[in-house]
Amino acid sequence: xxxxxxxxxxxxxxxxxxxxxxxxxxxxxxxxxxxxxxxxxxxxxxxxxxxxxxxxxxxxxxxxxxxxxxxxxxxxxxxxxxxxxxxxxxxxxxxxxxxxxxxxxxxxxxxxxxxxxxxxxxxxxxxxxxxxxxxxxxxxxxxxxxxxxxxxxxxxxxxxxxxxxxxxxxxxxxxxxxxxxxxxxxxxxxxxxxxxxxxxxxxxxxxxxxxxxxxxxxxxxxxxxxxxxxxxxxxxxxxxxxxxxxxxxxxxxxxxxxxxxxxxxxxxxxxxxxxxxxxxxxxxxxxxxxxxxxxxxxxxxxxxxxxxxxxxxxxxxxxxxxxxxxxxxxxxxxxxxxxxxxxxxxxxxxxxxxxxxxxxxxxxxxxxxxxxxxxxxxxxxxxxxxxxxxxxxxxxxxxxxxxxxxxxxxxxxxxxxxxxxxxxxxxxxxxxxxxxxxxxxxxxxxxxxxxxxxxxxxxxxxxxxxxxxxxxxxxxxxxxxxxxxxxxxxxxxxxxxxxxxxxxxx
Length: 506
Description:
Layout: H1 11-16, E1 22-27, E2 32-37, E3 46-52, H2 56-63, H3 68-87, E4 92-97, H4 99-103, H5 107-118, E5 123-124, H6 127-141, E6 146-152, E7 157-163, E8 166-174, H7 178-185, H8 189-203, E9 212-216, H9 218-230, E10 242-244, H10 245-256, H11 260-264, H12 277-291, E11 295-299, H13 303-310, H14 314-317, H15 321-330, H16 338-346, H17 356-367, H18 380-390, H19 398-411, H20 418-423, H21 430-450, H22 454-457, E12 460-464, E13 468-473, H23 483-496, E14 500-505
Parallel strand pairs: 1-4, 4-5, 6-9, 9-11, 13-14
Antiparallel strand pairs: 1-2, 2-3, 6-7, 7-8, 10-11, 12-13
């Protein structure tokens, strides 16, 4: 589905909005985590994020119930998180309990104790619901994803199909979380592999949609972090990181055979994942053996974000996640917040046959066009480039991150030199690199010509013709020409590969 997609810069809506914090306590099998989001919106940013490794799932797996010590550790973590959320004036706190709580014989005792001590009402969700909300999380974090979503937690693995803006009917929950699979590995890799394969063969839905596997969960994101570090990938953000499935499967196979001591020596491995990473890797390896996807994409969004997304209105859900994040970051700090919207209109005909995906990137660049105006002139371009390359945007791939960063860098007069080319190596083909430069230089020209005044900008239009780059001004006498404007126009023509440039009176 491509419509009704909301891709626009609505300045009035952004500036009049008053964010309301929202908290989620995720009561998982391995950890209990509190995330306080800045707003219940299309592109939520975490204000606070903390987890406590309680490992309730170990108790449940060994004894079928939570031990008194485990119950007290869980309650202690919940007490702290509840106190923090209250101190932050968070009006809404949801508690989501998953695999360990729903399977433990005394799971409802823990739910009752949490309710009595804090007034919070935990929701014990089913495995099918876990699969659903994890998939909705991927929908919220990507631009119309299609394929299968896999979410590995401490106690279980959920898999479901994602169809653009919808969750498919086929979904499954399996006891293949990091903790039970780690226990299987105690009997040796071969036995663990056979046991995992047996469960997958009986429950895993076939891959009948697009051959993309979206990997969710801390254990699999840890694999992405290590892979990024080992390959010196130019962007360290796991969200949106894509690699061929065969390459990832071979990598996971190697990790699955490692000891914790060997894993500890890998670059950028999260310390808390060392003991369970081989188990997470084993599950990924065997899932890919059965599904045979073409490529994998890692997601930082899952169950919690899917739960948030499901509470939004349909109108809000159809807003673009990247653009919403860009306007939330860029407009409040801009000298003239309305100028981003004006630039969006001014550049709409810059690239013929612009796709919906390309439009959202262009508008996001326009929304971020004034983020560095308070910085020293010498560092605006370089600092903006580095910041945007790694900023935790969602709804964006790594090549799109590179485009965004280069375009804003060019808007501040930065050049695509050897450092930039090395920093984004292999992410952008030359045509896209030039496109990003053209957009950035056009924005630089728009700022200079109009002094960032929307009404002045509206008196002109920009045309890149085959023979010349032209700034067409409707009322030339009211905005006299200057050498500064001529200089910016010359720079734009140069990156466009066109010799002639001129300012034309309409």
